[in-house]
Amino acid sequence: MRKEHAAVINESYVYVMGGYDGVQNIFLNCCEIYNVAKNEWTYFTPMNISKCAFSATVVNKNFIYTFGGYDGQNRLDAIERYSISDASWELMKVKLKFPLSNCACFCSDKNKVVLFGGGFSSGFSPYVELIDVEAQEWKSFPIM
Fold first, then answer.
1. Which of 18, 22, 89 minimizes the C-alpha distance to 53?
2. pLDDT digit string (tens) for the chain, length 144 residues
3. R_g of the chain computed on alpha carbons
4. DSSP letters spanning 75-137
5. Would you give the DSSP letter of residue 24?
6. How many angstroms separate the CA atoms of 77 and 83, rounded?
7. Closest C-alpha among 54, 43, 47, 75 to residue 6
8. Strand 137-141's sheet: what is its strand order?
9. Pairing, β 119-120 against β 112-116
């Protein structure tokens, strides 16, 4: 069981990551993949950080990126990247501008991800940011 997890679709696979079990107060780093063609679930490499309330998106059909979240103690500024071809997670050196949970994100163009909204230390975030994941550079958009 899991809630406040993230899920993305790439080709004919659904990737489900992390979350919170809602029963034993366990924050999850485990990941599962649903193969639509075979109608079966299997586990894939766990994330580095157990967390819920984070966002995720597929970039260039090669990577899954996760942004922020909550680990049971704190909101996170972490960005993790899963290489689909290598089946491995990497904790990125670049961080969010501030710890953030419950934000939304999408891949807007090659190597570019837009993040917006969510919760941070002083309430709800009105900010919209774009990160070039290859250059590891941030750009701010107008506030919502």
1. 18
2. 899 999 999 999 999 999 999 889 899 999 999 999 999 999 999 999 999 999 999 999 999 999 999 999 999 999 999 999 999 999 999 999 999 999 999 999 999 999 999 999 889 999 999 999 999 999 999 999
3. 15
4. BB--EEEEETTTTEEEE-SS--SS-BBS-EEEEEETTEEEEE--EETTEE---EEEEETTTTE
5. S
6. 20
7. 54
8. 104-109, 112-116, 128-132, 137-141
9. unpaired
What are the backbone dihedrals phi and psi of residue 103, each rounded to the nearest 5 degrees, phi first? -85, 170
Cβ pair 60, 42 in contact under 8 A:
no
Residue with tokens 């050196």: 93
Beta-carbon count within 10 A of 127 CB: 19
- DSSP code, position 4: S
Tokens of residue 86, six digits: 């290598």
One-letter amino acid of 137: E
Indicate the pTM of the whole model. 0.96
